[in-house]
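I am writing to request your help with a piece of structural work I have in hand. I am sending you one protein, given as its amino acid sequence and as whole-number tokens for its backbone shapes. Kindly check, if you would, that the fold set down in the tokens agrees with what the sequence suggests. You will find the record immediately after this paragraph:
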Amino acid sequence: MKKKWNIPPGMKDVLPGEARKRRRLVNELMDTFASYGYEEVGTSSLEFYDVVERDGMDAAEVFKLIDREGQILALRPDVTTPIARMVASRLRDRRLPFRLSYTGSTFRYETVQVGRQREFTQVGVELIGSDDLMADLEVLLLAIESVERTGIKEFKIGIGEINITQGFLNEMLVDEELVEEARELVISKNFVGLEALLLEHADAEKAQIFLKLVRKNGGAEILEEIEGYSEGIEYQAAMAGLKELAKVVREYGYEDRIFFDFSILRSFSYYTGIVFEGYAEGIGHPICGGGRYDGLLGMFGFEAPAVGFAMGVERVMIARNVKDDPEKKDVLILGDDYTQIVKKARELRAEGKRVEIDLTSADLAEAAAYMEEKGIERLFVMENDNDGE
């Protein structure tokens, strides 16, 4: 009996066919980013733990290691924080803004389920060095266009704003621990627990207004309704920005792709402004997400505003459910003259064809069966000094 070699829970082998589809998807997305002027960079999968802990993620979800010197290391749970570290340490003397793109594996110790693995591939962008609304718009529109590029037809981008939702919490709750507890309840959509906490620790009238805020979602029309919920300066400034953003998105032709949802806060604590998540039919988790994070680079000694987003490749592949369409290849049947075979293979490859040299077939029937299984459409048979199809 053959031994079954398992891999750790939440990890995945990528087999032929799926690997090809994934590589094609990643290449298409990276090409889309490049069309906006984003340059590809890469960061180490392994970071010092004191780097990744700055993203505010629950420490229990981070894969940690200890090296021979006793230093605590971590597999990166996202790519944004390592890029912030890289920019602050390697690119700080260059002219801003930076438009950076990336792809790579990330690791989180999460409960394993469909669309939620412990190792997953992200592709994304970071626009570093501008706090202008145009930067937010560029990244948001790029996210929408990128999802369209994947072939997913039915999707929406939900938009929130930290200065509206968390700003309101800061007005109501003086205690930072209570603010954080309320924030986690909003993220988990536990509105019953949120109501109980607010009614115990905040003004009842403000609590009810906030509960209306985080339960409300819809098109740009809801912005007028919630504008009067708070007179705070940050709240009103954020509201004005969202109104302008909604106007531009509408004129760009993407009004039906977005909605506003003020329960969106994202799990990383570094966000400081607009936040958004992309949702598609067939999967219960966001396929992409991002937002503005103006304080993260300052944690590495380089003050610079930034905005970006990341897309989960595996989730996108589940949502778009593209059937395998193998590329057609020509196959050469082995004959007596290896020289003829390799020369013909080179000739066909120079014409842009994908070519396999047959290594196992004893006759044409076996070759035909192999071709059917592999999706190969043409057969070259090398006989003596001639070849035939």
About this structure: The chain is about 40% helix and 20% strand. The mean pLDDT is 89. The two ends are 43 Å apart (CA to CA).
